[in-house]
Amino acid sequence: MEESETLDFQALEQEMQMAVAIDEKNQRENDAKFRAVHQKVETFEEFREIVLASHLKPLELRDKLGARNQPWNTCATKAKSSVQVELSKHADSQPRTAAEFSRDWRRYYSTEPEKYAFLLTLGAQLLGNIFHTEIGFGLLGEFLVILCDQFQPEDTNAIYWILLHLSQTRRFSLSVDFLNSKEREKGLRLFQLLEQNLGGDLQQGSEIEMNPEAINMRALQQLIKAYKFN
Question: Where does 6-97 have alpha helices with state H?
Answer without folding.
Answer: 9-39, 44-52, 74-77
